[in-house]
Design a protein that fits this description.
Elements lengths: L1 H7 L6 H15 L3 H13 L2 H11 L16 E4 L4 E3 L7 E3 L3 H11 L6 E6 L10 H11 L7 E7 L2 H11 L12 E8 L3 H10 L2 E8 L18 H34 L8
Helix pairs in contact: 2-3, 4-9, 7-8
């Protein structure tokens, strides 16, 4: 149920939802200003200049580094990013972007950790798709990674579940059986890394971020084309906005749990 709420509740706060709200207000109140505001929002959100800046802000101006330059860790953790089942009788599972997978493979081949962990991304309305970790395990073996070095989590549906599943899995691996905080090389999209890193740290793990899948090409200078609306720019703006909403949600949930914990730990004599 939570995943449905997480997907549905933010819809009205996304740019597309705001456009619909403004148009609904225009129809109900018979006013023109919501229409002009909706047009301005649509133009701004669909320009590459705006989408690029939003995404680089989400990416925290991170850069891609060579796998060989990263320090060693107890495990490499590759987060799920969604899959598509290709039409046809082959039942081929295609990825939306392969950078996370190849980033994990590069780190493993560079000898940065003895374990390569894939999370089992899965959503209930795509039951025909196997959990992503199972698919990536097969592909990792085809790239020369021994099966004995690959681990996958159970089914997960969001980043918080990924962090909890990995934190529960690592102590079971012989090479990371220490009671000290586990150090992982975390591989995910650059725009998603700040939120993912925070959640994994909250799960008790020490995180070495390895961001991949950058959405804004380096070295692009401003030009007039950056102000022309495009469908792809609107998609990227929505992606960045959804990520920012996700960060706000988890920050609010953490703050609420901390306040509740502080209240629960307060002596009764001080609560009267």
């Amino acid at each position: 149920m939570e995943i449905y709420l997480n997907k549905l509740l933010p819809l009205l706060a996304l740019p597309s939802g705001l456009l619909l709200l403004l148009l609904a207000v225009a129809l109900l109140w018979r006013r023109s200003w919501p229409v002009w505001l909706a047009l301005c929002l649509f133009w701004l959100g669909s320009t590459p200049w705006v989408s690029d800046h939003l995404l680089r802000w989400c990416e925290a101006n991170a850069v891609r580094v060579a796998a060989s330059s990263m320090p060693k860790a107890q495990a490499i953790v590759v987060l799920s990013e969604g899959r598509t089942l290709a039409p046809g009788t082959t039942g081929t599972s295609e990825w939306n972007d392969g950078d996370r997978f190849w980033g994990g493979i590069a780190l493993y081949k560079a000898g940065k950790a003895p374990w390569l962990v894939f999370t089992g991304g899965w959503i209930p309305w795509q039951r025909e798709l196997a959990p992503e970790g199972e698919v990536l395990k097969v592909w990792a073996r085809s790239q020369g990674v021994p099966e004995s070095a690959i681990q996958i989590t159970g089914k997960i549906m969001n980043t918080a579940e990924e962090a909890a599943a990995v934190a529960a899995l690592l102590p079971k691996l012989s090479s990371v059986g220490s009671t000290k905080p586990k150090t992982i090389l975390l591989v995910t999209s650059a725009f998603h890394m700040p939120r993912a890193q925070r959640l994994f740290q909250q799960a008790g793990l020490q995180v070495l971020p390895y961001p991949v899948d950058f959405k804004v090409s380096a070295g692009e200078s401003f030009n007039a084309m950056k102000l022309l609306p495009s469908a792809d720019a609107w998609r990227l703006t929505e992606m960045a906005w959804r990520e920012l909403l996700g960060r706000a949600y988890y920050a609010a949930r953490l703050g609420l749990s901390q306040r509740q914990g502080a209240t629960d730990s307060t002596p009764l004599s001080n609560t009267r």
